[in-house]
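Handout, page 2. Input:
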Amino acid sequence: MSSKAKVAISKVSDLDSAQAIEAAVRESVALACDFDTLCKGKHVVLKPNVYCPSPAPTTTDPQVIAALIKAAKDAGARRVTVAEGRSISTSLFRKNTSTTKDCFAAIGMDKAALENGADIVYLEEDEFLNPSNPDAVVLKHPSIPRTILEAEVLINVPVLKNHSLTLTTLGIKNLHGTISDADKLFGHDYHRIPQKLVDILHYNKPSLTVIDGVRGQEGDHANMGQVVDMGIIISGTDTVAVDAVAESAIGFDNLQIDTTRLAHEQGHGIGDINQIEVVGTPVAEIARKFASPDIEIDEARVPGIRVWAGDYCKGCEYYVRRGIDRLVELDGLDPDNPVTLVFGKDPSVDPNVEGRVILLGDCALESHSVKRLRDKLWLTGRLKMVYCCPPMEFRMRALELAGD
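Output:
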């Protein structure tokens, strides 16, 4: 691609003012494109990030969605829909808020939509269609909600934040909510997920991406991340370019993020910051380096944990570490009665270990070195396992699994 992509950055003058947020949203989208022409007479679908019931900035600020609804309706949109599908972890393990409807209610996204004249589609309840694309590498035959596939204008509205597996979760990553639960789980490992996310662009290419940077989140994408007052809105018609600018603003090197690099290389957009025109506020004026995710697993840092690990990737590292964090948070560890965590390929184990033991992930469960331990735990009534790659269940159920 020879021509430069255009990405707009606007400042929010008052982070606690709905009017200031709306003004920044309107300014940003107007700088990024001919917003009136984009929306006039069209069915506009807004896709926020509401993967769980946690408030902004873990999820998209409802005030940003409200501002976009009003802007689209003022531009003459025929209909505005807010559409989202919660994460697989939320579906399986957040018992009281397991649906997108529950999550919307918990953070006030339902009110933001309905009170401003939009309708809502909870994507897990939608009709799913089955497109295919031979150019996709991982996700060749996904199931995608009709509302997303048939949107005349799809506006992607992620949050400015880190992610422990993909380093950032921005425009490309936010599209993970537009596929079926089975597809969300498929390929959700460290080696395949960047390409899988890029593959979604073959099926769902947003007309506009608007990053909610009113308040960002550093260190982690889940509810353990730290809030950063950024006061910005970033917009552009090229999702890859928008991600690249956002990544530059929070301290990542050019094309450092796999999703941006792969999308750029595969022709989905412009990810090279040198080929992007930034309008409005310069990146240098609002840049702040975000803290990197801490997912190191070190038993010396956490009394009450014993680690028996073979070879493991970042997917396993993240979910095991976040499960340990949950045990610490909920006071579920006893240094005098440690929990033994077994994970990774071919870990060195003692089949005669006493106390609490949890076998985590497909690699460990399939390892020959674990077989005798697994049999011993079963015979003594102590067998506790978490299947799947990665073992995401442990992050959500750590306290229950670690119980005697």
